[in-house]
Design brief:
Blueprint lengths: L3 H23 L4 H7 L11 E6 L5 E6 L3 E5 L2 E14 L2 E12 L2 E4 L2 E5 L2 E5 L3 E6 L34 E2 L2
Antiparallel strand pairs: 1-2, 2-4, 3-4, 4-5, 5-6, 5-7, 7-8, 8-9, 9-10
Length: 170
């Protein structure tokens, strides 16, 4: 049978180890900070992300929302599923799944986002649209995007294109 002193030392050691793990997980960056680390603006994701997973070696990631999220920005209907995944590297997100844009009557997956200087190119595969990065400095809110009546929004009408939206590359 272990002596009370040894049990006390084990208990204290276990408590310190658990506290160390808790403080490590609390200090991990938010998903919005990770976007910035890879040179992307935080506004690529809406407010309300509940968690994420990232393999820092491969860049494969999954982002979680507690519910689907949709809003309209400058005439574009966007929809975020509860799970968004892809592969991120500096200035490029590829194999993107879980974000859609409505073009005419169809919901089309945004499959890649590329940053080139102050421009973001959102690609749906055969077509893409360019936007200035300053359109994405704030995260939109589910339901109202940047045009929210609660005083947090106020960016309505600022979303603008640098070229024709979602035009074929050919």
């Amino acid at each position: 049978m272990a002596s009370p002193a040894i049990l006390c030392i084990l208990f204290i050691s276990l408590s310190l180890f658990t506290a160390s793990l808790a403080s490590t997980s609390d200090s991990s960056p938010t998903v919005y900070e990770l976007l910035e680390k890879y040179d992307f603006p935080v506004g690529l994701l809406p407010k309300g992300v509940t968690g994420y997973e990232l393999n820092s070696t491969t860049g494969k990631f999954t982002v979680y929302l507690n519910k689907t999220c949709s809003f309209t920005i400058d005439g574009y209907n966007l929809k975020y599923k509860t799970e968004i995944s892809g592969t991120i590297s500096t200035d490029k997100i590829k194999d993107l799944k879980g974000i859609q844009v409505k073009v005419l009557f169809f919901w089309i997956n945004i499959v890649e986002v590329t940053k080139d200087g102050d421009e973001l190119e959102l690609s749906v595969g055969i077509a893409s649209a360019d936007f200035t990065v300053d359109n994405f400095y704030e995260s939109p809110e589910c339901g109202c995007g940047f045009d929210c009546n609660n005083g947090i929004g106020g960016k309505a009408g600022k979303f603008r294109f640098n070229s024709k939206p979602f035009v074929s590359d050919s």
